[in-house]
Amino acid sequence: MAFNLADMVNKRPKQVQQENTSDTVYRDVFELVPSKENFYGTDPDRLQGLKNSIQLFGVMQDVLIEDVNGEDHIISGHCRTMCCRMLVEEGHEEFRKINCKYTTVKDDTRKMFLEDGEEDHETTQLLEKLAVIQANRFREKTDWEKMKEALETEEIIKGLRELRELKGKTRDMVRETIGVSGTQMERYHAVQKKLSPEWMKEFQSAKINITVARELADLDETYQKKAMEHYEDHDGITGAEIKAFKSLQENNRDIPGQFTIEQVTGQQRPPENDTPVIPELQIERLFESLNKGERERVLKCDTRMAAYLISIRYRDVRIRNGHFNYQASKEGITFNPDSTMQYSLTWNELSEELVKRFGKKQKPVSIVSIDAPEKPQSTLAESEAVKAFCEAYPEKLKTIMRICRRCENNGEAAKAVQLEFAPGGFSAVGGGKVNYSFMSFSAGLEIEVNNEKVSMKYGRLIVEAKNLYDPLSPEFDAESKKPKTKEDEGPAKCITGQSGSGLCGAAAYCDEKYTCCSQCPDDCNSRCGWIPEKSCQSAAETPGEKQQEDHSGDLTEMVKHLRNTDKIPDAWPEDLKDIPVPTDVEIIGYLYDEERKLKEFLEIEEKEPGLPYMTILKQQLIVGGLRIIKNLVEDCQEEPEESEQPPLPEMRNNDQRKQWLREYKSWGLWYTDPHIGARYYKYDFNNGARLIAEEYDPEPRKESWWVPTEPYFLHLVGGPEPERSGGVPKWTYHSKYHKFPNSETELVEFLKEVQKNG
Fold first, then answer.
1. Within 10 Å of residue 434's Cβ, how many Cβ atoms?
2. Helices 410-421 and 394-406: crossing angle, nearest 10°?
3. What's this model's pTM, rounded to 2 decimal places?
4. In this model, does residue 413 exceed pLDDT 60?
5. Which residue in 249, 150, 237 sits closest to 202, CA to CA?
């Protein structure tokens, strides 16, 4: 006779289902025998919630038991029984007796398969297993228990098919018996067959779900082991990270018969070159050398997985070839080890730096209806946008044309224009009819005309501008003096001889139509303070010798008027009495900018001669004058001025602490070493520690889109000695200034301690 298992389970008469259990009885929890066929978890750690519930409300559902040779065997309720045993062991004797019901479900199931008086031990054993599964059908289960349940049911059905005639396919019977689809069964089989014992243990303890387990099963033994190392290091693993391991596995799959270049050619490693290389440059080159999988993680801003993949490939690698100079380890990478340019990063910090420079943030997906109108496209052409820009900003047009004169091709001109207009990577003007945004060389620029925007590369700007204008046109030559008209005359010449421009500037701010303050009877705040008490000639006249003789302006009063101060340092020269005395911070900042500009001029002239002689000479004179003024400012200072440092902000996380460290320039310039071009910034903490930022000029990179930044190194000096964790200090302690800098990770720990202690 052929049996349909699903029909036997689902079409059982209701009276049989109601009569197969007895009334409630109470049994000692330590006398109940757990079923040998039970595979559902009874781990005490997972039963804490159920135990608390039982302690508060009692056992709300009877335990199903069966009398087997005078012993009470548990069919369903193993977890409830275990919780009551735990409570009794803790001293709660009221839970020793648990409410139970005897069931004859096994006997009823046997009757469906066996004839009266028929004995079949194998069939009985399979039916007992099936009875346990059915009794626990609707309990809360982990993914591992669901998998075990489905696979056990499949094996039971296969065993019954060998012993008894069953209708239908095994897969269909599994689906109809416990509700598991064929696709899910394939997932379970793959996990059972290919998942490593280490991962299976995590799966069984519910630390990973079925989705993660299935993805891990596609990895071979080697990469499952690597994934386990990643899992242990980061206390977890995601589906995206497992897919990254899959990509890495595919990329590194060996091709039979393939040899490396070293194997084919027998090359020997070239001699090492210990020349230090700028860390920023090495980081850029490192990104270019990443494989497809690593580069993809960086571009997707997956910092965590990028750090892991890079650490796997570069761990324990040492390269010193003039192009790279670094030593990698399990903890991280050190650029230029044992040199003055030594710079260390952990793998996470390196990954964060790569993502910061090269990562592309994913654009959010906006869901709109099908009938939503399309956004109208801009009708503004690139040529029209460039023309409007040039007409609105004639000075920038002149700059562009002059750059085109000295550059051999449009590419060089495009790079020079970007460096001129956006040396820091961004410069913009908004709020008018014609606005612009100049960005990095790779990002290009954006021109907005009457609320319509056009984006383009710098090369396109050069092409369109040259189509509209001739760079060799005389209008783009150096400024020439135009003959003045009566409308352009403006204020009259200064009668005192004290104006630096030679003109009367005070009268220009007067509401009355006077050309000189001498013509005005009112005494106001904008009135010139240099006018002698004697009457002066009309503003239209040219000052003569009489005016010069009548002038009795006091230089001290003049300076008071300009600078609002009562004291002029004695060391300040007489020739500079009309020039305000700048601070050392101001003059150093101006000098740094002008010296940098002069350096660029000289480099351009050396590479491509052709810059006007007067342009270079003018910049040299500016730099020379500022150097002299810097020395004069130092002579005028009786004591070094100590700039007030900003208060330490409230930093809630490590990202904010790192950002504060990177914005060291906000602390204020402390000291400059003119011999090596180093600048020092400092921050003094209340605990006696001093943090010093050491900054250098960046290495010029004219052939790269990347705008280099100033390399800097952070040194922590003094303060309390750090606490130790496992014998290892939280940060490197230096009682005095040391050439080896502190890493950003160390200083984050120091800032945590500072905030913790107030």
1. 16
2. 140
3. 0.33
4. yes
5. 237
